[in-house]
């Protein structure tokens, strides 16, 4: 009830956990009718952001021990906000120091680059959003649609995993490249941020996740026939705008690689390579869309002879 009565929700996290907050912000706003702000833990502390007693702060961390996120938690606690932890580790510092929370129960994640924790965090926040919105009569249809989508999700994930050979062939095309751009918007902006992070982490290739709407404000200057670009173009409320971004990169002689819905002939015909994923409710498509990018980063690393589980210079609390 405190969450329903709050005046603002602040999601505070780092790295992949931050991306899961970006991925679910839109749905959380839609079902709660409360403004949602997503903050990087380190930047949040640097700015000494004003926090009030009627704010609710979500702290997302796979390990529950992320130092910057814990410091942000203590700062918010001193300001009297309600603290909600979302973590994968029972008994972790975040789970002990928050007022309430969710254990995502994804199982131990030993590899440094987070994969299943990311998708499980999204599912957990989607389910929390459903709980917040379930009392509203006007949102009953939307809530029922999302619940049906969650029931179908395991089978749809299995179907996406069967695309592994297609993604390996794509990785063979890309593994000698120096850079990779990923573009999307709406629910799939976070997909591009997370996909770019995975490529950086395990294959050491420079990659950048770009909001398609910002393409004309600078990033388009990078696009030419030698720059590989991945575009996530799914049939949600951003479809026409993402389609426009595809036309923009094609006009610069780019050979676009697209992640689109199965049977989307128009996008597939315009693509150099295309990966088709099954359709589900819009707020869950980002779970299906990120899996090809996780597999791509894995194959890029293997083709380069790198250790996928232990990238250089990085450590992880499990």
Describe this structure in words.
- By secondary structure, this protein is α/β, with parallel strands linked by helices.
- Helix content is 47%, strand content 17%.
- Strand 6, helix 9 and strand 7 form a beta-alpha-beta unit.
- The longest helix is centred in the middle third of the chain and has 22 residues.
Report a brief summary of the structure:
By secondary structure, the chain is an alpha/beta fold. Helix content is 47%, strand content 17%.
Mean pLDDT: 93
Number of alpha- plus pi-helical segments: 12
Radius of gyration: 19 Å
Q: Which sheet architecture does the biggest sheet show?
A: 5 strands, parallel
Number of strands: 10
Q: Which descriptor suits the 3D outline?
A: globular
Percentage of residues assigned to helices: 40-55%
Secondary-structure element order, N to C: HEHEHEHEHEHHHEHEEHEHEH
Question: How far is the first residue's CA from the last residue's CA?
Answer: 32 Å
* Strand adjacency order, main sheet: 2-1-3-4-5
Instruction: Provide the structure class.
Output: alpha/beta
Which ranges are low-confidence, i.e. pLDDT below 50, for 5 or more consecutive residues? none
Provide the β-strand percentage band.
15-25%
List descriptors.
single chain; 318 residues; alpha/beta; five-stranded parallel beta sheet; 10 strands
Task: Compile the SSE list and pairings.
Blueprint: H1 2-5, E1 8-13, H2 15-32, E2 36-40, H3 41-46, E3 55-61, H4 67-78, E4 82-87, H5 93-97, E5 100-103, H6 116-133, H7 140-161, H8 164-174, E6 179-184, H9 189-203, E7 206-211, E8 229-233, H10 239-251, E9 257-261, H11 265-270, E10 273-277, H12 285-303
Parallel strand pairs: 1-2, 1-3, 3-4, 4-5, 6-7, 6-8, 8-9, 9-10
Helix pairs in contact: 2-6, 2-9, 6-7, 7-12, 8-12, 9-12
């Amino acid at each position: 009830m405190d969450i329903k009565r709050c005046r603002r929700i602040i999601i505070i996290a780092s790295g992949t956990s931050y991306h899961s907050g970006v991925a679910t912000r839109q749905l959380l706003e839609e079902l709660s009718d409360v403004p949602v702000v997503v903050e990087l833990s380190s930047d949040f502390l640097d700015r000494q952001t004003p926090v009030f007693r009627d704010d609710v702060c979500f702290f997302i961390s796979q390990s529950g021990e992320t130092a910057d996120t814990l410091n942000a938690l203590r700062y918010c606690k001193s300001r009297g906000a309600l603290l909600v932890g979302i973590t994968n580790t029972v008994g972790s510092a975040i789970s002990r120091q928050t007022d309430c929370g969710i254990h995502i129960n994804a199982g131990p994640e030993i590899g440094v680059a987070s994969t299943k924790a990311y998708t499980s965090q999204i599912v957990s926040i989607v389910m929390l959003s459903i709980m917040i919105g379930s009392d509203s009569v006007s949102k009953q249809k939307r809530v029922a649609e999302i619940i049906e989508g969650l029931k179908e999700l395991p089978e749809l994930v299995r179907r996406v995993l069967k695309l592994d050979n297609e993604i390996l062939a794509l990785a063979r095309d890309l593994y000698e490249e120096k850079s990779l751009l990923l573009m999307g918007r709406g629910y799939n902006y976070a997909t591009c941020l997370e996909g770019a992070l995975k490529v950086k982490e395990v294959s050491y290739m420079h990659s950048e996740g770009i909001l398609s709407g910002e393409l004309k404000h600078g990033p388009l200057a990078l696009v030419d026939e030698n720059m590989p670009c991945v575009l996530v173009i799914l049939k949600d409320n951003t479809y026409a705008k993402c389609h426009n971004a595809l036309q923009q990169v094609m006009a610069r002689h780019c050979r676009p690689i697209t992640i689109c819905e199965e049977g989307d002939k128009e996008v597939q015909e315009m693509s150099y390579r295309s990966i088709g994923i099954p359709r589900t409710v819009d707020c869950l498509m980002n779970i299906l869309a990120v899996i090809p990018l996780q597999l791509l980063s894995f194959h890029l690393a293997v083709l380069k002879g790198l250790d996928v589980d232990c990238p250089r210079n990085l450590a992880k609390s499990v």
